[in-house]
Amino acid sequence: MTRKPARRVTLQDVAKHAGVSRATASLIVRNSPKVAAKTREKVLKSIDELGYVYDRVAANLRSQKSSTIGTIITDVGNTFFSQFLLGVHHELEKYGYTVLLGTTFDSLKNQERLISTMLENRVGGILLCPVSTSSTETVDRLKTLDIPVVVGIRELNELTCDFVGLNYQAGAYLAVNHLIQKGHQQIAFIGGISDSTTWTERMEGYRAAHEDAGLSIDYSLILDSAPTREGGMEAIQKLIQQDRLPKAIFCFSDLIAFGVIIGLRKMGITPGKDIDIVGFDNIPEAEISYPPLTTVSSFAQKTGTAAASLLHNRMQHPEEQRQRIIIEPELIKRDAF
Fold it and tell me: Where would I find the HTH lacI-type domain in this sequence (predicted)?
Protein backbone atom coordinates (compact mmCIF):
# COMPACT_ATOMS: atom_id res chain seq x y z
CA MET A 1 0.00 0.00 0.00
CA THR A 2 1.38 3.39 -1.03
CA ARG A 3 1.84 5.85 1.82
CA LYS A 4 0.51 9.34 1.32
CA PRO A 5 3.19 12.02 1.58
CA ALA A 6 3.19 13.91 4.87
CA ARG A 7 1.21 17.12 4.75
CA ARG A 8 3.36 20.26 4.85
CA VAL A 9 3.11 22.11 8.15
CA THR A 10 1.58 25.54 7.56
CA LEU A 11 1.95 28.82 9.39
CA GLN A 12 -1.70 28.45 10.44
CA ASP A 13 -0.76 25.14 12.14
CA VAL A 14 2.02 26.92 14.03
CA ALA A 15 -0.30 29.73 15.11
CA LYS A 16 -2.93 27.28 16.37
CA HIS A 17 -0.31 25.20 18.24
CA ALA A 18 1.15 28.31 19.91
CA GLY A 19 -2.25 29.87 20.65
CA VAL A 20 -1.61 33.06 18.69
CA SER A 21 -3.04 34.62 15.55
CA ARG A 22 -1.57 33.80 12.14
CA ALA A 23 -0.56 37.45 11.78
CA THR A 24 1.52 37.25 14.98
CA ALA A 25 3.19 34.02 13.82
CA SER A 26 3.95 35.69 10.47
CA LEU A 27 5.65 38.63 12.20
CA ILE A 28 7.89 36.24 14.13
CA VAL A 29 9.07 34.18 11.14
CA ARG A 30 9.90 37.48 9.43
CA ASN A 31 12.01 38.56 12.43
CA SER A 32 9.82 41.54 13.25
CA PRO A 33 10.79 43.33 16.49
CA LYS A 34 7.15 44.19 17.18
CA VAL A 35 6.37 40.96 19.10
CA ALA A 36 6.91 40.42 22.84
CA ALA A 37 9.78 38.13 23.80
CA LYS A 38 7.51 35.68 25.63
CA THR A 39 5.21 35.32 22.62
CA ARG A 40 8.19 34.96 20.29
CA GLU A 41 9.62 32.17 22.46
CA LYS A 42 6.27 30.33 22.44
CA VAL A 43 5.92 30.50 18.66
CA LEU A 44 9.54 29.47 18.03
CA LYS A 45 8.98 26.45 20.27
CA SER A 46 5.93 25.47 18.19
CA ILE A 47 7.94 25.90 14.98
CA ASP A 48 10.59 23.56 16.35
CA GLU A 49 8.12 20.95 17.59
CA LEU A 50 6.05 20.90 14.39
CA GLY A 51 9.03 21.11 12.02
CA TYR A 52 7.70 24.15 10.19
CA VAL A 53 9.84 25.48 7.32
CA TYR A 54 9.30 29.07 6.18
CA ASP A 55 8.61 29.23 2.42
CA ARG A 56 10.56 32.40 1.68
CA VAL A 57 10.03 32.31 -2.08
CA ALA A 58 6.25 32.07 -1.67
CA ALA A 59 6.36 34.92 0.85
CA ASN A 60 8.35 37.05 -1.58
CA LEU A 61 5.78 36.40 -4.30
CA ARG A 62 2.94 37.42 -1.99
CA SER A 63 4.62 40.61 -0.87
CA GLN A 64 6.23 41.40 -4.25
CA LYS A 65 9.38 42.19 -2.27
CA SER A 66 12.27 39.81 -1.78
CA SER A 67 14.34 39.59 1.38
CA THR A 68 16.97 37.43 -0.34
CA ILE A 69 20.23 38.78 -1.76
CA GLY A 70 22.36 37.01 -4.34
CA THR A 71 26.11 37.39 -3.81
CA ILE A 72 28.53 36.17 -6.49
CA ILE A 73 32.30 36.07 -5.87
CA THR A 74 35.19 34.62 -7.85
CA ASP A 75 37.00 32.42 -5.31
CA VAL A 76 35.68 31.33 -1.91
CA GLY A 77 39.11 29.84 -1.13
CA ASN A 78 40.76 33.26 -1.38
CA THR A 79 40.95 34.78 2.12
CA PHE A 80 40.37 38.22 0.64
CA PHE A 81 36.86 37.14 -0.36
CA SER A 82 36.30 35.48 3.00
CA GLN A 83 36.95 38.86 4.63
CA PHE A 84 34.80 40.60 2.02
CA LEU A 85 31.91 38.22 2.77
CA LEU A 86 32.21 38.88 6.50
CA GLY A 87 31.49 42.52 5.81
CA VAL A 88 28.61 41.64 3.48
CA HIS A 89 26.92 39.23 5.90
CA HIS A 90 27.31 41.42 8.98
CA GLU A 91 25.76 44.37 7.16
CA LEU A 92 22.88 42.50 5.52
CA GLU A 93 21.99 40.66 8.73
CA LYS A 94 21.14 44.04 10.27
CA TYR A 95 18.29 44.35 7.77
CA GLY A 96 17.08 40.74 8.01
CA TYR A 97 18.22 39.63 4.55
CA THR A 98 19.04 36.05 3.62
CA VAL A 99 22.16 35.70 1.45
CA LEU A 100 22.53 33.20 -1.39
CA LEU A 101 26.22 32.69 -2.25
CA GLY A 102 27.68 31.59 -5.56
CA THR A 103 31.33 31.13 -6.56
CA THR A 104 32.45 31.48 -10.19
CA PHE A 105 36.09 30.38 -9.80
CA ASP A 106 36.79 33.17 -12.32
CA SER A 107 34.78 31.38 -15.02
CA LEU A 108 32.56 33.48 -17.29
CA LYS A 109 30.32 30.47 -17.95
CA ASN A 110 29.85 29.92 -14.21
CA GLN A 111 29.09 33.61 -13.74
CA GLU A 112 26.33 33.55 -16.37
CA ARG A 113 24.83 30.40 -14.82
CA LEU A 114 24.89 31.86 -11.31
CA ILE A 115 23.20 35.08 -12.40
CA SER A 116 20.42 32.96 -13.93
CA THR A 117 20.17 30.88 -10.74
CA MET A 118 19.85 34.00 -8.60
CA LEU A 119 17.06 35.31 -10.83
CA GLU A 120 15.27 31.94 -10.71
CA ASN A 121 15.32 32.20 -6.91
CA ARG A 122 13.76 35.66 -7.17
CA VAL A 123 16.46 37.52 -5.27
CA GLY A 124 15.75 41.15 -4.51
CA GLY A 125 19.22 42.29 -5.57
CA ILE A 126 22.61 41.01 -6.70
CA LEU A 127 26.05 41.84 -5.35
CA LEU A 128 28.51 40.82 -8.07
CA CYS A 129 32.29 40.58 -7.99
CA PRO A 130 32.84 40.01 -11.72
CA VAL A 131 35.23 37.49 -13.24
CA SER A 132 38.36 38.89 -14.87
CA THR A 133 37.13 37.96 -18.36
CA SER A 134 33.76 39.69 -18.05
CA SER A 135 32.76 40.93 -21.50
CA THR A 136 30.50 43.46 -23.15
CA GLU A 137 27.91 40.66 -23.24
CA THR A 138 28.09 40.53 -19.43
CA VAL A 139 27.48 44.27 -19.26
CA ASP A 140 24.57 44.03 -21.70
CA ARG A 141 23.00 41.23 -19.64
CA LEU A 142 23.28 43.16 -16.38
CA LYS A 143 21.72 46.21 -17.99
CA THR A 144 18.56 44.21 -18.73
CA LEU A 145 17.98 43.05 -15.15
CA ASP A 146 14.98 44.56 -13.38
CA ILE A 147 16.52 44.24 -9.91
CA PRO A 148 19.27 46.33 -8.26
CA VAL A 149 22.88 45.28 -8.95
CA VAL A 150 25.97 46.45 -7.08
CA VAL A 151 29.37 45.60 -8.55
CA GLY A 152 32.30 45.13 -6.19
CA ILE A 153 36.10 44.87 -6.48
CA ARG A 154 36.39 44.80 -10.29
CA GLU A 155 34.68 47.59 -12.23
CA LEU A 156 32.99 46.89 -15.55
CA ASN A 157 33.39 49.60 -18.16
CA GLU A 158 30.16 51.03 -19.61
CA LEU A 159 28.06 49.59 -16.77
CA THR A 160 26.37 52.44 -14.93
CA CYS A 161 25.37 50.68 -11.72
CA ASP A 162 26.60 51.22 -8.17
CA PHE A 163 30.23 50.24 -7.58
CA VAL A 164 32.49 49.74 -4.55
CA GLY A 165 36.21 49.20 -5.01
CA LEU A 166 39.70 50.29 -4.09
CA ASN A 167 42.03 52.91 -5.52
CA TYR A 168 44.21 50.19 -7.04
CA GLN A 169 46.46 52.68 -8.82
CA ALA A 170 47.31 54.40 -5.54
CA GLY A 171 47.87 51.03 -3.86
CA ALA A 172 50.32 49.87 -6.53
CA TYR A 173 52.11 53.21 -6.36
CA LEU A 174 52.58 52.81 -2.59
CA ALA A 175 53.99 49.31 -3.02
CA VAL A 176 56.40 50.09 -5.85
CA ASN A 177 57.52 53.38 -4.33
CA HIS A 178 58.33 51.50 -1.11
CA LEU A 179 60.66 49.22 -3.07
CA ILE A 180 62.22 52.19 -4.88
CA GLN A 181 62.86 53.92 -1.56
CA LYS A 182 64.74 50.79 -0.47
CA GLY A 183 67.12 51.38 -3.37
CA HIS A 184 65.70 49.03 -6.01
CA GLN A 185 65.79 50.17 -9.64
CA GLN A 186 64.53 46.99 -11.28
CA ILE A 187 61.18 45.77 -9.96
CA ALA A 188 59.14 42.90 -11.35
CA PHE A 189 55.34 43.00 -11.48
CA ILE A 190 53.94 39.49 -11.17
CA GLY A 191 50.43 38.05 -11.38
CA GLY A 192 46.88 38.93 -12.28
CA ILE A 193 44.96 38.81 -15.57
CA SER A 194 46.21 41.63 -17.79
CA ASP A 195 42.79 42.10 -19.44
CA SER A 196 41.10 42.96 -16.13
CA THR A 197 40.55 46.50 -14.85
CA THR A 198 42.13 45.67 -11.49
CA TRP A 199 45.38 44.66 -13.24
CA THR A 200 45.30 47.68 -15.55
CA GLU A 201 44.88 50.07 -12.62
CA ARG A 202 47.72 48.43 -10.69
CA MET A 203 49.85 48.73 -13.82
CA GLU A 204 49.15 52.47 -13.93
CA GLY A 205 50.42 52.81 -10.36
CA TYR A 206 53.48 50.68 -11.15
CA ARG A 207 54.25 52.90 -14.14
CA ALA A 208 53.65 56.16 -12.26
CA ALA A 209 56.03 55.19 -9.43
CA HIS A 210 58.78 54.48 -11.98
CA GLU A 211 58.16 57.74 -13.82
CA ASP A 212 58.22 59.84 -10.64
CA ALA A 213 61.54 58.23 -9.66
CA GLY A 214 63.02 58.75 -13.13
CA LEU A 215 63.35 54.98 -13.68
CA SER A 216 62.72 53.13 -16.93
CA ILE A 217 60.52 50.02 -16.94
CA ASP A 218 61.89 46.66 -18.02
CA TYR A 219 58.77 45.12 -19.56
CA SER A 220 60.33 41.65 -19.55
CA LEU A 221 59.85 41.75 -15.75
CA ILE A 222 56.05 42.03 -16.08
CA LEU A 223 54.32 38.63 -16.09
CA ASP A 224 50.59 38.09 -15.67
CA SER A 225 49.14 34.86 -14.32
CA ALA A 226 46.09 33.30 -12.74
CA PRO A 227 45.38 35.16 -9.46
CA THR A 228 46.31 32.14 -7.31
CA ARG A 229 49.27 30.69 -5.42
CA GLU A 230 49.82 28.33 -8.33
CA GLY A 231 49.82 31.29 -10.71
CA GLY A 232 52.50 33.01 -8.62
CA MET A 233 54.65 29.88 -8.55
CA GLU A 234 54.42 29.43 -12.32
CA ALA A 235 55.23 33.09 -13.02
CA ILE A 236 58.32 33.20 -10.80
CA GLN A 237 59.57 29.95 -12.32
CA LYS A 238 59.34 31.53 -15.78
CA LEU A 239 61.29 34.55 -14.58
CA ILE A 240 64.00 32.36 -13.06
CA GLN A 241 64.22 30.20 -16.20
CA GLN A 242 64.69 33.34 -18.30
CA ASP A 243 67.51 34.39 -15.94
CA ARG A 244 65.67 37.71 -15.42
CA LEU A 245 65.14 37.62 -11.63
CA PRO A 246 65.54 41.11 -10.09
CA LYS A 247 66.04 41.93 -6.39
CA ALA A 248 62.49 43.24 -5.90
CA ILE A 249 59.01 42.04 -6.84
CA PHE A 250 55.60 43.70 -6.64
CA CYS A 251 52.86 41.06 -6.61
CA PHE A 252 49.30 41.52 -7.84
CA SER A 253 47.96 40.01 -4.60
CA ASP A 254 49.08 38.35 -1.39
CA LEU A 255 48.09 34.95 -2.82
CA ILE A 256 50.41 35.57 -5.76
CA ALA A 257 53.13 36.65 -3.30
CA PHE A 258 52.79 33.41 -1.34
CA GLY A 259 53.18 31.45 -4.58
CA VAL A 260 56.23 33.50 -5.49
CA ILE A 261 57.77 32.88 -2.05
CA ILE A 262 57.23 29.12 -2.40
CA GLY A 263 58.77 29.14 -5.88
CA LEU A 264 61.82 31.11 -4.71
CA ARG A 265 62.43 28.80 -1.77
CA LYS A 266 62.36 25.79 -4.07
CA MET A 267 65.24 27.43 -5.95
CA GLY A 268 67.19 28.12 -2.76
CA ILE A 269 66.43 31.86 -2.78
CA THR A 270 65.47 33.40 0.59
CA PRO A 271 62.62 35.97 0.49
CA GLY A 272 63.32 38.97 2.72
CA LYS A 273 67.06 38.37 2.49
CA ASP A 274 67.95 37.72 -1.13
CA ILE A 275 64.92 39.46 -2.58
CA ASP A 276 62.28 41.99 -1.45
CA ILE A 277 58.60 41.25 -2.09
CA VAL A 278 55.47 43.38 -1.60
CA GLY A 279 51.97 41.94 -1.85
CA PHE A 280 48.50 43.42 -2.19
CA ASP A 281 45.33 42.93 -0.05
CA ASN A 282 46.74 42.40 3.49
CA ILE A 283 44.84 39.17 4.09
CA PRO A 284 45.29 37.77 7.63
CA GLU A 285 47.94 35.24 6.50
CA ALA A 286 50.25 38.08 5.43
CA GLU A 287 50.99 38.94 9.06
CA ILE A 288 51.66 35.39 10.20
CA SER A 289 53.52 34.12 7.11
CA TYR A 290 57.28 33.54 7.30
CA PRO A 291 58.67 36.03 6.80
CA PRO A 292 55.76 38.44 7.49
CA LEU A 293 54.73 40.10 4.23
CA THR A 294 54.79 43.83 3.56
CA THR A 295 51.60 44.50 1.62
CA VAL A 296 48.94 47.01 0.64
CA SER A 297 45.72 46.80 2.63
CA SER A 298 42.65 46.78 0.41
CA PHE A 299 40.29 46.68 3.43
CA ALA A 300 38.29 43.67 2.22
CA GLN A 301 35.80 43.59 5.10
CA LYS A 302 35.20 47.34 4.91
CA THR A 303 34.61 46.99 1.16
CA GLY A 304 32.09 44.19 1.74
CA THR A 305 30.23 46.27 4.31
CA ALA A 306 30.10 49.27 1.96
CA ALA A 307 28.86 47.13 -0.96
CA ALA A 308 26.11 45.52 1.14
CA SER A 309 25.00 48.87 2.53
CA LEU A 310 24.91 50.32 -0.98
CA LEU A 311 22.76 47.44 -2.25
CA HIS A 312 20.31 47.78 0.66
CA ASN A 313 20.03 51.50 -0.01
CA ARG A 314 19.47 50.91 -3.73
CA MET A 315 16.71 48.40 -2.98
CA GLN A 316 14.99 50.92 -0.71
CA HIS A 317 15.57 53.94 -2.96
CA PRO A 318 15.82 52.76 -6.58
CA GLU A 319 15.46 56.28 -7.93
CA GLU A 320 18.59 57.70 -6.30
CA GLN A 321 21.63 58.65 -8.35
CA ARG A 322 24.30 56.01 -8.97
CA GLN A 323 27.10 55.86 -6.39
CA ARG A 324 30.76 54.98 -6.95
CA ILE A 325 32.64 54.38 -3.69
CA ILE A 326 36.43 54.17 -3.87
CA ILE A 327 38.31 53.16 -0.72
CA GLU A 328 41.86 54.44 -0.24
CA PRO A 329 44.60 51.83 0.38
CA GLU A 330 47.30 51.75 3.04
CA LEU A 331 50.83 50.31 2.92
CA ILE A 332 51.45 47.86 5.76
CA LYS A 333 55.20 47.61 6.34
CA ARG A 334 56.61 44.52 8.00
CA ASP A 335 60.19 44.03 9.13
CA ALA A 336 61.35 41.34 6.74
CA PHE A 337 60.56 43.36 3.65
Answer: 9-63
| 334 domain-assigned | no
Cis peptide before 292 (omega within 30 of 0): no
Q: How far is CA 223 from CA 81, 194, 232, 289, 318, in A?
A: 24, 9, 10, 24, 42
- State the CATH number of the domain containing residue 25: 1.10.260.40
Domain co-membership, 109 together with 212 = no
**Residues 196, 80 share a domain:** no
Assess contact for 170 and 232: CB atoms under 8 A.
Answer: no
Contacts of 267 (CB under 8 A, 6+ apart): 240
What is the reported pTM? 0.79
How far apart are alpha carbons 289 and 293 in whole angstroms?
7
Note the pLDDT tens digit of each residue in 148-200. Answer: 999 999 998 888 899 999 999 999 999 999 999 999 999 999 999 998 899 99
Domain extent, residue 240, equals 168-297
